[in-house]
Write a structure and sequence with these properties.
Layout lengths: L1 E11 L5 E11 L3 E5 L6 H8 L7 E6 L2 E2 L4 H7 E4 L11 H11 L6 H10 L15 H13 L5 E5 L7 H16 L3 E5 L3 H7 L2 E6 L2 E7 H7 L5 H8 L2
Parallel strand pairs: 3-8, 3-9, 6-7, 7-8
Antiparallel strand pairs: 1-2, 1-4, 4-5, 9-10
């Protein structure tokens, strides 16, 4: 089954900026899918459209067969987004913020699941701490916990390892693999091309609002004489 299906998606902002120009691809349920591209390629706009933050100009987008406009409640409950920007309510503790998320998605508070997420992300001893008091790496872990707390079927990780140390990066890799092994579909955007090569089965490379490549990583490399993904990326996004 297709977790995400996008057809001829376009987005033009009021000032005339064309962010997406006929983007189309699908993400299969249970895969780790890489969404790659330089700054300004349209990745964040695409993610914001899927999560209901931004309205598309035209085209179609479905999550598990449900149109994002016709069934927004289902779509929002099916997706958890870890954005690039770290944001939080400065007055809530980590635990309070996660508890609020259950209510936001109209779900019963599941303490056992919350404890598991906090433990898995090494946040158990920070549950009474306000996120603003956490270190940069811990804030990133908190953002991931907040995105996972309603048990979404699709998790979008938008530059999850930007600015974090090597140890945290490796633990996040393990966590991505664990979530995927449990059936969660992962969409990963990253500027670290080795991450995509390591974690993703297929990748879509975007440039100037369009998809310029969409293939399995090994097929893409084979087509370019076994070049590294980083070199292929550079050649396609000049």
């Amino acid at each position: 089954m297709q977790a995400i299906e996008i057809k001829d998606l376009k987005k033009t902002y009021k000032q005339g900026t064309l962010a997406l120009n006929g983007v189309g691809f699908s993400v299969e349920e249970g895969e780790v899918f890489g969404l790659l591209g330089p700054n300004g390629a349209g990745k964040t706009t695409l993610i914001n459209i899927l999560s209901g933050v931004t309205q598309k100009t035209s085209g179609e987008a479905r999550v598990f067969g449900k149109d994002i406009d016709e069934d927004p409640v289902f779509v929002k409950s099916s997706i958890g987004v870890v954005p690039q920007e770290i944001s939080f309510n400065p007055f809530f503790s980590v635990e309070d913020a996660l508890t609020f998320q259950f209510g936001f998605y109209n779900q019963k508070i599941d303490r056992e699941w919350m404890d598991h997420v906090l433990q898995r992300l090494s946040l158990s001893d920070k549950r009474k701490t306000k996120p603003r008091e956490l270190s940069g790496g811990m804030k990133r872990r908190f953002m991931i916990a907040r995105a996972l707390i309603h048990r979404p079927k699709v998790v979008v990780l938008d530059e999850p390892t930007a600015g974090v140390d090597v140890e945290l990066r490796r633990s996040l890799y393990d966590f991505v693999r664990e979530m995927n092994a449990q059936g969660t579909t992962i969409v990963l955007t990253t500027h670290y091309l080795e991450e995509a090569e390591l974690l993703c089965g297929r990748v879509a490379i975007m440039n100037r609002g369009e998809v310029v490549a969409l293939e399995r990583v090994e097929d893409l490399r084979r087509k370019h004489n076994d070049a590294k993904l980083e070199d292929i990326f550079v050649s396609l996004t000049k």
